[in-house]
Write a structure and sequence with these properties.
The protein has 834 residues and is of the alpha+beta class. The protein contains 26 helices and 18 strands. The strands form 4 sheets. It has a 5-stranded mixed barrel. A 5-stranded antiparallel β-sheet has the order 8-7-6-16-18, with helices on one face. Helix 23 links the parallel strand 13 and strand 14. Helix 16 crosses helix 17. The radius of gyration is 32 Å and the shape is globular.
Length: 834
């Protein structure tokens, strides 16, 4: 370890500590004071420089200083970008400047800098809004426009622990999202007085739009849309089917302009310039043509950054490319851990929030793993072979040399795809709940097309476009893109379940990253200790538990785990996006319509919907209780359910297994009865209590449902005393805590240890007092005397004691509750008062 530090291996670790300070800021339970974090960073810096230390003590002091610096820079960034956002969903009339126009498969999306928003004061007006529209004509960047739109605040995580959309919008200074009603009107007078910043953005956006339109005119469909996406960064026109195939096949990174694209574009320019200059012996022998080529490649990368839209991922890739080419110009090694660490430090300083973005995590994980793997491979090969390989090459024929290079290139491609896939797999699982088990095959088959044909021809098309020759390289480029799409479609068909695995939580990704960094940044035998966290990450991920009930941030969409183990969805207005993520996080690749809740679990009227689900399995009834079960039964097919009582949602077959009843062919229960409509429960018979969830639509339902339901979910404001009888998730709760997940299997009586004490969540004593006031009958009540039971119906199950009430497990189910936000909101979670 000391040898690694003496060789400069400590610098990457300081950047890791810097990143840990940024991560610590985002994990703080409350927002720190800016002056306090800046003062702490300054004090640590002074202490690290004034007290001259050596060895491990000095490195520890520098590491603590780096953590403090990361905490301060993240706090400062938050303070600098803080802007107002809309408080509630409303319809507004907007006047503003169009900053960017992104074509979509249907319609377009506008990024607008508003001048006025009806009903919103200037001090509370967002800096930027994003809206989608369909009506023609499509607006042009730089124009002053007027339109009516339905705007809503940025959405929080759709699942506790999920991706924070509101945080990403906060740092992009987007204060509202929405959709446009009707056409967009243009204001010619205002357009002539547009600010300089809008003019510059409009000029660049106009150039990008003309390039993208010209590409799509050459050839349409997904091939043209992907070509435009690779050159100007407009991905919205690519069909959802093509994007899904690329995601499943592990080729989605092709669409996002990132390090690979920047490296290919700049690399093509670098090698073309260097090869051209090398044709002159005088230049090659007398001048630093490598540095000249690096300068030309850096200029090409800068141009590519501009015309590709300059997204966060592209900016990150540009910084990494700039560090590499500047190292070449300075005559230093280009691709080392130190250069990667420097690039990460620059990116994190400019945008600390990038640390939490999947793109940052995946790109740097892949680069670090590749550098470490190839460094270890080359060192082992050098120790084993020495100069033997160089001597063996002498005298070989050109054919053998070519074959050997082809084999090495193919093996390198396979190794690169395998290492990058393993390094980015846990991150992809954490954020997207899916993996690409056949991604290695897809990348080996498709990446030669991207590297050798598609991206080089993209550069050629840009160079030849001013001369009208761009169709010549675009046509073979189209053929290569079509081949890539065919590969993606075939791999997607072969992938079971679309590669959906389900959520694994954040801990496995953190453990895996820690193990990866430990193995990659050390060169001594200490690095093998990193295998431990990697193995632990696998175990922790396998232990992750999925929620049994989920409520959306607006309370309109709800998911409940049914008897088949899958989530059953009741999707409200605007809830499809969140419902899809819920299914993927649950490891379910089914379509939404297949998982929609049916009438066997849900019953609705105009005031509310009642959902009946099974609680965790409870201990069996004691034999001495002598309990009987009264059954109302209905002649039906074998797939109908029994409601409430002995196992809600049970089929006749499961009733037979659990109770010892025999079932005749016609579906009626005859043998095993203790009398008409009765059977005796044995002490082995399992008992499962039904949980009743009420989703209140109208206030009239509160009077009954607050008393009889176990959980009340509503987008309205529930009465204050409703929490005395049920767990309440209402508008006030959701406004503070956001999307909510409940777990039956993790039963805790004091949920304040996890989320504070949200309204409606009772301690053990208060819950026992509330249960004493509850109606002990099943809800909804269906009690018919046994002698009056119609012989052809099976309606419900009710426990009837023979002599005295048995100790039935009818106490309140107090679940573990996880929420997307804590009670102490952070700046990106706050909304101004309406």
């Amino acid at each position: 370890m000391r040898r690694d530090l003496e060789r400069g291996g400590g610098f990457p670790w300081l950047i890791v500590c810097y990143a840990c300070g940024i991560w610590l800021y985002f994990e703080l339970p409350r927002e720190p004071q800016l002056w306090a974090t800046l003062l702490l960073a300054l004090a640590m810096s002074v202490a690290a420089t004034t007290r001259r230390r050596r060895g491990h003590a000095a490195f520890v002091m520098l590491a603590l200083t780096a953590i403090a610096a990361g905490l301060a820079i993240a706090d400062l960034r938050t303070w600098l970008v803080a802007t107002p956002r809309l408080a509630a969903e409303r319809t507004h009339t907007i006047n503003g400047w169009v900053e960017a126009v992104e074509p979509r498969a249907v319609g377009y999306r506008l990024s607008v800098r508003p001048m006025t928003i009806s009903g919103v004061e200037a001090s509370a007006m967002p800096v930027r809004i994003r809206v989608t529209g369909r009506a023609e004509p499509t607006p042009v960047a730089g124009e002053a426009v007027r339109f009516r739109a339905r705007l809503s605040p940025p959405q929080g995580p759709v699942l506790p622990g999920g991706y924070a959309f509101d945080r990403a919008a906060f740092y992009e200074q987007v204060g509202a999202y929405g959709f446009i009603f009707g056409r967009v009107e243009r204001d010619g007078e205002q357009s002539r007085t547009r600010p300089l910043s809008i003019r510059l953005k409009a000029a660049l956006a106009s150039l990008r739009a003309r390039i993208g339109e010209r590409i799509r005119e050459t050839y349409g469909g997904d091939s043209g849309a992907i070509a435009a996406a690779l050159i100007v960064g407009e991905r919205g026109a690519v069909s959802e089917e093509a994007q899904e195939d690329l995601r499943i096949a592990g080729l989605a990174h092709v669409l996002a302009i990132s390090g690979m694209h920047m490296a290919l574009v700049a690399g093509v320019v670098f090698f073309v310039i260097r090869a051209g200059l090398a044709l002159s012996p005088t230049l090659a022998l007398s001048y630093p043509i490598r540095s000249w080529a690096a300068g030309g490649a850096l200029a090409a990368a800068t141009l590519y950054l501009a015309i590709s839209g300059g997204s966060i991922a592209t900016q990150r890739a540009y910084v990494m490319a700039a560090v590499v080419f500047l190292s070449m110009i300075a005559g230093r090694p280009a691709v080392t851990m130190r250069s990667v660490a420097l690039a990460a430090a620059i990116v994190l300083t400019l945008a600390p929030e990038s640390l939490l973005q999947p793109g940052f995590q995946m790109s740097f994980s892949a680069v670090i793993a590749l550098i470490a793997a190839y460094r270890a491979l080359f060192e082992a090969r050098r120790r084993r072979q020495g100069n033997r390989q160089a001597r063996e090459i002498v005298g070989r024929s050109m054919l053998r040399r070519g074959m050997r290079l082809a084999v090495l290139w193919g093996a390198g491609l396979v190794m690169t795809s395998l290492i990058a896939g393993l390094a980015t797999g846990p991150v992809a699982l954490t954020h997207f709940y899916r993996s690409s088990p056949l991604g290695l095959i897809a990348n080996v088959a498709a990446m030669p097309l991207v590297s050798l044909i598609i991206m080089p021809l993209a550069v050629v098309s840009l160079v030849t476009m001013p001369y009208g020759l761009d169709p010549l390289p675009l046509y073979p480029m189209q053929a290569a893109i079509d081949a890539m799409l065919a590969i993606a479609a075939k791999i997607a068909d072969w992938t079971p379940g679309g590669g959906v695995i389900g959520a694994i939580g954040d801990a496995p990704a953190i453990l895996f990253t820690a193990g990866l960094l430990w193995m990659a940044l050390w060169s001594s035998r200490w690095r093998y200790l990193g295998i431990g966290p990697v193995c632990l990450a696998v175990l922790v991920g396998a232990m992750h538990e999925s929620p049994d009930m989920i409520v959306s941030e607006d309370g309109r969409t709800i998911a409940l785990r049914g008897r088949d183990g899958h989530l059953a969805l009741d999707i409200g207005s605007g809830g499809k996006f969140g419902a899809e993520i819920w299914l993927r996080s649950d490891g379910d690749a089914a379509e939404l319509k297949i998982r929609e809740v049916d009438g066997r679990m849900r019953r609705c009227d105009t005031d509310a919907c009642i959902y009946t689900i099974a609680a965790p399995r409870e201990p069996p009834l004691p034999a001495e209780a002598g309990a009987e079960v009264v059954l109302q039964h209905r002649k039906t097919n074998e797939t109908d359910d029994l409601v409430a009582g002995l196992e809600p949602g049970a089929s006749p077959a499961s009733m037979e297994r659990n109770s010892g009843l025999s079932r005749e062919r016609d579906g009626e229960y005859e043998r095993g009865w203790a009398g008409k409509g009765r059977m005796l429960l044995s002490d082995e018979a399992p008992y499962r209590r039904a949980i009743h969830v009420s989703r209140v639509i109208r206030p009239e339902a509160f009077a009954e449902d607050c008393i009889r339901a176990d959980i009340v979910v509503t987008a309205l404001a529930a009465p204050a005393n409703c929490a005395d009888h049920a767990i309440v998730i209402d508008r006030a709760f959701l406004k503070i805590h956001g999307a909510t997940a409940l777990y039956w299997r993790q039963k805790i009586l004091d949920a304040s240890a996890v989320t504070g004490e949200p309204p409606g969540l009772q301690h053990e004593e208060r819950a026992a007092k509330a249960d004493a006031t509850r109606d002990a009958k099943p809800f909804p009540t269906q009690t018919t005397p046994p002698q009056d039971l119609p012989a052809e119906t099976l309606r419900s199950v009710a426990v009837k004691p023979a002599t005295h009430p048995p100790p039935l497990p009818l106490d309140r189910i107090v679940p573990h509750i996880a929420t997307a936000r804590s009670a102490q909101l952070r700046p990106w979670q706050m909304h101004p008062a309406p």
